[in-house]
Hints:
The protein is an alpha+beta fold. It has one domain (5-95): Cloacin immunity protein (Chitinase A, domain 3). The protein has helices spanning 30-41, 65-75, and strands at residues 5-13, 19-24, 47-49, 55-57, 61-62, 84-92.
Amino acid sequence: MSKKFVFVIEYFHKTKDSFVTQKIIPNCTMEKIKVLLFEVFGKEEPIGVTEDGEMFLVGGYKITPLIKEKIYNMFDIDVDIDNYTCFLANAYLSDFDEDGNMANNNI
């Protein structure tokens, strides 16, 4: 059975280096992510493909001030990189409820 991927922002405590939460990026597609990463890195970043043909990011990308700005401009999301270490990554949609909240959401 295939699990659907969504794009998320992962939040980690800066001092404890422990996971806090993930937030779904609404209306985010692989094409938008490819554009964002190309604008930041100037080259195409690695994309994985599941057996079912679904594309996903290979690894996570630390959200730098430039990536934060791009996310804000594309998705109107202000990522709090001052208080958290954040990554752009994939997660399974099944890990979230219908409102986009995950269990143990601490932000």
